[in-house]
Automatic annotation (TrEMBL), chains A, B:
DNA-binding positions: 128-225
Keyword Protein biosynthesis set for record: no
Gene3D superfamilies: 3.40.50.2300, 6.10.250.690, Winged helix-like DNA-binding domain superfamily/Winged helix DNA-binding domain (1.10.10.10)
The keyword Glycoprotein belongs to this UniProt entry's keyword annotation: no
This protein's UniProt keywords: DNA-binding, Phosphoprotein, Transcription, Transcription regulation, Two-component regulatory system
Organism: Sphingobacterium micropteri
Protein name stated in the entry: Response regulator transcription factor
Annotated positions of the 4-aspartylphosphate modification: 51
Xref: PANTHER family: REGULATOR OF RPOS (PTHR48111:SF22)
All residue ranges annotated as the OmpR/PhoB-type domain in the record: 128-225
UniProt xrefs under SUPFAM superfamilies: C-terminal effector domain of the bipartite response regulators, CheY-like
Sequence ranges assigned to domain Response regulatory in this UniProt record: 2-116
InterPro entries, A to Z: CheY-like_superfamily, OmpR/PhoB-type_DNA-bd, Sig_transdc_resp-reg_C-effctor, Sig_transdc_resp-reg_receiver, WalR-like, WH-like_DNA-bd_sf
Transmembrane segments: none
DNA sequence: CTTCTACTACAAGAATTTGCATAAGCTGAT
DNA sequence: ATCAGCTTATGCAAATTCTTGTAGTAGAAG
């Protein structure tokens, strides 16, 4: 589940990113409206969280711009203002939900679930907390991975990468996509971290000839169940 | 699971009652606002579905009346209007969700699940006054914690944190969630109070190799019984 | 078949972060 | 002023992340 957070206040964005990541979401942070329209618009987000007060552009303007460019991703607006007028204009221009700061983090999570649940329903996808591929079990609620019953100790980054691969099961994902989704890096800075982490994952989850991660030369990797 | 449907249009109410009953809910139908306030107000519903257009009273008025009388049952508003103003006023006056006709029945179900799930979560506050995990006893009525009969002196904050962990037993809770739930709303994430208090708790309740609080690296903590 | 090149795999270690314990500072109530 | 409780700061060990560098491999070209 990939979420784009558009927020220029460092304090709040840190809090959001950290909290959402701790809840298992893959989060990318963008600090200004311009970059959203330039760099991030073509990525398929599951949800966009948009602050209504940005330095370079009004959040509602950005919302309008996105909808104008036919971006139909669910958008949750975030604002310090409690004015009804703001709520109205945000929802009128196509926001899917609206939350006023300060808010309870659990309420944010529950609203995110509501928004993305509807999306999943539309996509006719069934989200599962328990996944199994051969001997490999993944429990997403408990962040627990086991192989033939034995626990597999994965670092946070390794776990995130695994989840991303599993979410795109059967699809080839590129290094850039992975850098994007798992590392939050949107530019190529000539790193081979992805390769290294694929290697880590393989050594931990591929045992006794059970192979899950396949190399697609020149393109990326693919997870097969 | 008991649901009260307040709806005066026969076509719609039939559809709702039939559909909900087929999904396993116990449904009661009420055709006017007056009866809700007279007859049905004292029953403990799990959910109330309220049409915004009733013959004898505006749905939002009824909603207000219910909340005024301290009925905190989750309420889902139903309306043919897609006006943002209605949505806002409904939500402002204490509706928990809002659905516009015509709607997909599956979406209704999914929203019902969301609302009643949250309720179940909230109801975890009142289940058992006496809890026991190994040698650890927690009496929630007396705010008293003992280990092997010996009283454990916990400060208010420590106690609150313990209760929050216990309420989420078996689930990983993040630092941000704990900050939110135990310390109140804050965007501050440059603090390690949570770690410190986990440490305090451990030193007070984990004795003789009885371990309750487990670290989930990179994510948070989990209480196991 | 052999050679070449671009790509991939992975080991090793440096740099950074995290979790945890402890200490020190702060605050509000009595 | 004192004290309990709360928060911040600090140090350290261990874990994690990331870079570097080298060996290996697939597949195209000759």
């Amino acid at each position: 589940m990939q979420i784009l957070v558009v927020e220029d206040d460092n304090r709040i964005s840190n809090f959001l990113v950290k909290g959402l990541e701790e809840c298992g979401y893959l989060v990318t942070l963008c600090k200004n409206a311009e970059d959203v329209l330039k760099q991030y618009i073509n990525i398929e987000w599951d949800l966009i969280i948009l602050d209504i007060m940005l330095a370079d552009m009004d959040g509602v303007q950005l919302l309008q711009a996105l909808r104008y460019k036919k971006v139909y991703t669910p958008i949750l607006m975030l604002s310090a203002l409690n004015s009804v007028q703001d709520k109205i204009s945000a929802l009128d221009y196509g926001a899917d939900d609206y939350l006023t700061k300060p808010f309870h983090f659990d309420e944010l999570i529950s609203r995110i679930r509501a928004l993305t649940r509807r999306r999943q329903y539309e996509q006719l996808e069934t989200p599962k907390a328990e996944l199994q591929f051969g001997q490999l079990h993944i429990n997403r609620e408990q962040y627990k991975v086991t192989w033939a019953g034995e626990p597999v100790e994965l670092s946070p980054r390794e776990y995130k990468l695994l989840i991303y691969l599993v979410e795109n099961i059967g699809k080839t994902v590129s290094r850039v996509q992975m850098l994007n989704a798992v590392w939050g890096i949107t530019f190529d800075n000539h790193t081979n971290v992805v390769d290294v982490y694929i290697s880590y994952l393989r050594s931990k989850i591929e045992k006794q000839d059970e192979k899950y991660i396949f190399t697609v030369k020149g393109v990326g990797y693919m997870f097969k169940g």
